[in-house]
Amino acid sequence: MIYFDNAATTRCSQETIDTLIRYADRQYFNPSSVYHEAVEVKIELDAARNRILKAAGGGEGKIIFTSGGTESDNLAVFGTRKPNKSKVIVSAAEHAAIYNSAMELKRRGFEVCLCPVDGCGRVDEDAFRMLLDETVSFVSIIHVNNETGAINDIRKLCALTKAANPSAIFHSDGVQALGKIPVNLTDSGVDLYSLSAHKLNAPKGCGALYVRKGVHLNPIVYGGGQEEGLRSSTENVGAIIAFSDMVSYYTANRIPLSTNMSAIKQIIKRFLSEAEGIRFLTGEPSSDYILTFASDKLRGEVTLHALNREGILVGTGSACSSAKASRRIAEVLGLKGKYVDGIVRLSFGRYNTQEEALAFCAAYKKIYEELSRYGS
Amino acid sequence: MAAEPNTILIRYGELFLKGNNRYYFESLLIKNIKAALFGIRFKFVKSQSRFFVEDFDPADKNLILSRLTKVFGIHSLSPAVKIRTDLKKIGEIASMMAPEQGTFRVTVRRADKKIPKKSMEIAAEIGGDMLERVPARKVDLFRYDFELCVDIREDGWSYVFYEVIPGAQGLPSGCSGRAMLLLSGGIDSPVAAYKMGRRGVTVCCVHFHSFPYTSELALRKVVDLTEMLRPYVPFIELTVVPFTKIQYAIHEHCPQEFMITIMRRFMMRIAERLAQDKKCGALITGESLGQVASQTMESINATNSVVKMPVFRPLIGNDKEEIIEIAKKIGTFDISIRPYEDCCTVFLPKNPVIHPKLSEVERYESKLDIEALIAEAIAGAEVRSAAFPAE
To answer: Which residues of chain B does A371 touch, with a Cβ-Cβ cutoff of 8 Å?
Structure first.
């Protein structure tokens, strides 16, 4: 099996599995308890917190552990104080966790503006500038777009936001970014930054929100007061430790990993450039881990099933269950005609090889020859 | 003493009409009841023209009732308290289980003639006892809110009940034979299965899939639909047949606007072959006249003409709204609207022919190696949802 859907989720590393077993089996103590064994767990939890903070260049900020990227995004959107009816800007190509949270803010009376993006999903900086004024209270711009891999210049967008209104909060969803592109949160100036464990060979159900020093948040989950009261619930210790280990691994090995991903991406990109009717939705600058294209000959869903039969797992912008979301993305990317249903996302991970990229090309050629005869 | 029902009394309806075949219908109904209660501990008791489900865990009572209300052939159900015949105790139980207010009457059936009192006298006594215990109740023999019934049997046991839950009616599944349903995954065909199931048909389903144009989830959907129908048709089964090659062949050799008509002719032929294998006596479709291009009189004629078996179309005269209402009632609607493509929406022509001429259809079709295509499809058929292990 060739797994090219690492932006959806990744396989847990052996190290992660060992860690999860250790914390389930031997170090299962509640970090809020006060006996020696629990205190040790608490110490390790905080060490994990610091490792992630350091890897993200978070300086004096803090890391709040959550259940994943979606919850981190929700905590950012709903946990920040914003004057009633003030302006909220999010990019039109945000992940559903931000997009649908912003739609909820709209229902609650906020003026929600969707910032246009270019054909590769990157925020149109001129359009962004035009939306800014002193009434802006909250901005959320995805760092690496999960659909196309486009990298937004969050440092610049954050600076523009602060120039328009110094008290506005700038959030970025960094789920596809940390460990995969250079991230320095202090330098970029962002107030809040969402992270997820399972995109980095750590388990699902674990994530974090970076909070810059001095930024005030209110909880959206109440209970025992864990995570400085911002996210009550007993910490998912094993997952958190594995998460921090994987963040360390990715940041330490970012360049060699990226080099391999880039080589895989280029093999496939060169191959697809020669195919008919292919439009690349991934442009530059983009993450080395994602390559998205649209075909006007083969529907994305049909390609997915046909590749599945060949033992290759890919993502699509057009899986019926997420049809609404993918239609939105296709629309904001300006896709027309058959391209709208023809989106395929390939996303690579640390276990992928260049041989797999070549195997993909051969399989794609085979299914293309079969399916394009009938026009799907 | 507890007044929690420990027995479910089952009355059956239309079976009485069947004269000499009564034993056959009863035994089918018993088999279906046992299949419906598969996985639950209970004791089945047959008595004259009634069945009893007894000795179950009280926690299973509602589950048993909910399953039994879907068994065709059952007229009504009553949760009852079964106790050793003792008039004083019966009065006590009756009072405890009945509603605390409202008008009521007491009806006693006394099969046990060893008891000296007459039915009317016993009823009056029990009624008096109930009034004494809860004066908010009022007796009204004709316009009552509930009827408290007491069956005093000859074997020394009595049943006390007041609640009458309507059953699914119809005929016991299987008494009308087997038929092959073309199950698409849409709203209509599961309703057609339900309606024929109600007339005693054991439904075998065939679904056509067009991998890679249709997904694994689309297959999951028809399996779920089949399982949703199982409480009504306990021995329902599902066979899936690969259809992509046939669609390719039609696409290559026949005019686009005839795609659906010819596709459906293939489906009917394959369904008939499978039906013969599975000893079915008819085909069933969910067609409703005029609903879509393939359901006009001419289209139906074009698809019907390739088979010899009778084709039942229980929804032919129904409006979409009526069909949806039943689909919601039987729980298939929410599954049917899952947004996965089925093989009928793949290669959908922009302008399908609405009034196809049979001669034209046959002429286009003659370019295809029909027998070889059918044989290959049937060779790839797989059973996805088999009949109950109880069978």
So the answer is: 212
pLDDT tier at B15, thresholds 50, 70, 90 = low
Looking at the fold, whether A201 and A316 belong to one and the same domain comes out as no
Q: What is the pLDDT of residue B390?
A: 41
A193, A53 in Cβ contact below 8 A? no
- Contact between A302 and B217 using a beta-carbon 8 Å cutoff: no
Dihedral, CA of residue B342, residue B344, residue B349 and residue B355, to nearest 10: -160
- The one-letter amino acid code at B100 reads E
CATH number for the domain that contains residue A235: 3.40.640.10
User: B150: alpha, beta or left, given left = phi > 0 and alpha = psi -120 to 50?
Assistant: beta
- Residue tagged active-site, from A113, A120, A320, A361: A320
ipTM above 0.85, yes or no: no
- Which residue in the set A302, A308, A323 is minimally distant from B213, CB to CB? A302
Q: Are strands B237-242 and B202-209 parallel, antiparallel or unpaired?
A: parallel
Do A65 and A189 lie in a common domain? yes
Looking at the structure, do residues B261 and B310 belong to the same domain, yes or no?
yes
Nearest Cα to Cα of residue A316 among A376, A254, A238, A233: A376
Q: Which residues of B touch A306 (CB under 8 A)?
A: 212
Are B113 and B31 in a shared domain? yes
Residue B94 lies in domain: 7-166
**Which of these three, B137, B166, B195, is where a domain ends?**
B166
- On whether both A137 and A258 belong to a single domain, the answer is no
Query: Could you tell me if residue A329 is left (phi over 0), alpha (psi between -120 and 50 degrees) or otherwise beta?
Result: alpha
The model's pLDDT over A6-43, given as tens digits with 9 standing for 90+, comes to 999 999 999 999 999 999 999 999 999 999 999 999 99
The string of pLDDT tens digits covering residues B141-165 is: 899 998 999 999 888 899 999 999 9
Q: Tell me the backbone φ, ψ of residue B218, rounded to 5 degrees.
A: -65, -35
- C-beta of residue B72 within 8 angstroms of C-beta of residue B236: no
Can you tell me the distance from the alpha carbon of A288 to that of A265, in angstroms, rounded to the nearest whole number? Answer: 7
Angle at Cα B308 formed by Cα B303 and Cα B313, nearest 5°?
55
Residues of chain A found within 8 Å of residue B347, distances taken between Cβ atoms: 374
Tens digit of pLDDT for each residue in A88-132?
Answer: 999 999 999 999 999 999 999 999 999 999 999 999 999 999 999
Q: Has A115 been annotated as catalytic?
A: no
Domain boundary at A228, A252, A276, which?
A252
Q: What pLDDT digit, counting tens, does each position of A284-316 carry?
A: 999 999 999 999 999 898 999 999 999 999 998
Three-state secondary-structure class, residue B9 = strand
CB of A376 within 8 Å of any CB in chain B? yes
Rounded to the nearest angstrom, the minimum Cα separation between A306 and chain B is: 5
Domain CATH code at residue B15 = 3.30.2130.30
**How deeply is A368 buried, as exposed, middle or buried, from its count of CB atoms within 10 A (0-12, 13-18, 19+)?**
buried
In a domain, A3, yes or no: no
> Is the Cβ of B215 closer than 8 Å to some Cβ of chain A?
yes
Domain finish residue from B107, B133, B166: B166
